[in-house]
Specification:
- 2 copies of one chain form a homodimer.
- Helices cover 40% and strands 19% of the residues of chain A.
- Chain A is an alpha/beta fold and 324 residues long.
- In chain A, the strands form 2 sheets. In chain A, strands 3-2-1-4-5-6 form a 6-stranded parallel beta sheet.
- The longest helix of chain A has 16 residues, at 29-44.
- The two termini of chain A are 44 Å apart.
- In chain A, 43% of the residues are buried.
- Chain A binds chain B through residues 59, 164-168, 170-176, 178-180, 182-183, 188-189, 192, 197-201, 204, 207-208, 211-212, 214, 220, 247-248, 251-254, and chain B through 59, 164-168, 170-176, 178-180, 182-183, 188-189, 192-193, 197-201, 204, 207-208, 211-212, 214, 220, 247-248, 251-254.
Chain lengths: 324, 324
């Protein structure tokens, strides 16, 4: 895809009267922030704009300006549909027909895995967030200017997909765009608090249980933690609630390898394994039929908890001792 | 203080042959990062440079380039001394004589409370970090250029004092400087991991105990957590290990006020109190002879734990119920 198609996307939007913007299901801060920023500017251009989402707006994004643009399933057709931050049209869920029924189908995204077919599809995998693409689209191709509302949406988009400028996808351009967004006087510490700091009751409980289970072995170089099915049953746990629990052990001073195990209803364990500096945890995971990267991998294993821990530890020790 | 004095600081450094750079005691990422960045450039200019520190370099900063510039208490005098990131010469500790004995005394800092007397003292309170001042000093006044080592030091300085671009002191300029630092190809996710993610055994233990103690009252709007003296005795706890523990409750969804109590050896409790949206916790703290800001305050209180909790809760409830 080339810059040219972003120009084409802009031309189609300029010519449109009724636009529908379609982020992926479970819209996150980038999908929703980018969609609302663009929606706000298109409305300012005099277009009729709807942003359709599948679910309720999550409480950590309920501060976003432009939420009045959001509808669920209106009985309406649009002349232009824009798929946004979504690499697969099937991930529009129930809203897929709005895309297919539009006269002109557009798409902008930054995922390398994008396989969307549209009249004009722009994919820029160098952008850390779709919010960066929308920044260019508004300012360079739609004659737009920033205002505080649009800046707040785009800032939310960018920090969501860069972990607050911490992930490797963060570029100098990411920071330069964000500098311009800050110049609009947005309350960015509030956004950070909403997007990153708020913890659900479920998550706090899982963190606490994980910490309580944590064992250190091999002079503190190996951390093992776990959640049993009994632990998990107490709260309505969603799969992304487990995210980051393996890092409680990994981030502890002196730890080289952290393993986190969680039990499913059938008594099987799903293992996540991380290393900090030298142990190849993909090789460890392969011993259990799993896989991954050198510093982050996963596997499945069955058996009673203590036996599972023993076998996983036995598989890790040679790597820690430098004779794997 | 004016920009003029930064020019004067630069002129004195240019004329110097032997320079000593003096960060404050317990040098953090900004003090050490700024000192080493400047030290590296001055050495490249052909100067003899020592960076004197009081303590061991903390393990979360042991990756900084230029650590070979660091000495403790050399038997030496310098013609130019530069106090850096330090608002009070007494905070040089045992190294104070190196400053007073130098022929020319310089100082650069960003603290509003700065009261350093020097031949030339530059204080810029708009800079989020002293690292930003050093960036300008090197590039605009000392004819310097960035390299990867200097960029890594300055990036560490800036993220330390802005909490990774999250605090209100972060400015558009902070992000623009950081964009230039990223252009040097530094491994910034590694720096983030070292500076922010690593947790000590003591800290993890305190977090775990705090989570285990956490009680929710008033429909989950009030979180109370504590550490008893018995809890604290088990690890070699330093006062900054308590930092952030009150936020475990504050960041929990639905919580308006979080109180964290810790017991001292005499059975007194030190209370930290935070609110998210509407309760004036300074007013609550004043009832116990303490004080602070509307969203963050502290107090001291004596008595058995459960009685202390009851009296603190009683003081908070009217504010939460909206009839304080």
């Amino acid at each position: 895809m080339t810059e040219g198609t972003l120009v084409k996307v802009a031309e189609c939007l300029k010519a449109a009267s009724e636009v529908v913007i379609l982020p992926h299901i479970n819209a996150d801060g980038d999908a929703l922030g980018a969609a609302l920023a663009l929606g706000l500017w298109l409305r300012q251009m005099g277009k009729s704009v709807d942003v359709l989402v599948e679910e309720e707006v999550p409480s950590n994004l309920d501060f976003l300006p432009g939420l009045d643009l959001i509808k669920n399933h209106p009985d309406k057709r649009y002349n232009v549909a824009l798929n946004i931050d979504n690499g697969d049209i099937a991930r529009l869920g129930q809203r897929e027909p709005y895309f297919h029924e539009a006269q002109i189908k557009l798409s902008i995204d930054h995922h390398a895995t994008n396989r969307v077919e549209a009249d004009y599809s722009y994919v820029d995998i160098k952008s850390a967030a779709t919010g960066e693409i929308v920044y260019d689209l508004i300012l360079e191709h739609l004659g737009g200017t920033l205002n505080k509302d649009i800046a707040l949406c785009l800032y939310t988009a960018i920090i969501t997909d860069t972990g607050g400028f911490r992930y490797t996808n963060t570029t100098p351009r990411t920071l330069e765009i964000s500098a311009e967004l800050l110049r609009q006087g947005i309350d960015f510490p509030y956004v950070i608090k909403k997007v990153f700091d708020m913890v659900s009751h479920t998550k706090l409980y899982l963190m606490k249980q994980t910490m309580n289970s944590l064992r250190l072995l091999e002079d503190g170089k190996l951390a093992v933690s776990y959640l049993t099915f009994e632990d998990i049953q107490k709260y309505p746990v969603k799969s992304d609630d487990y995210e980051g629990l393996v890092n409680i052990g990994r981030n502890l001073e002196g730890v080289e390898v952290s393993v986190f195990l969680r039990e499913d209803p059938k008594g099987h364990f799903k293992g996540s394994i991380r290393s900090n500096n030298y142990v190849d945890v993909a090789a460890v995971s392969e011993k259990f039929g799993g896989g991954g990267h050198k510093r982050a991998a996963g596997f499945n294993v069955s058996g009673p908890l203590e036996e599972v821990i023993l076998s996983v530890v036995a598989a890790i020790l040679p790597g820690i001792r430098g004779n794997s």
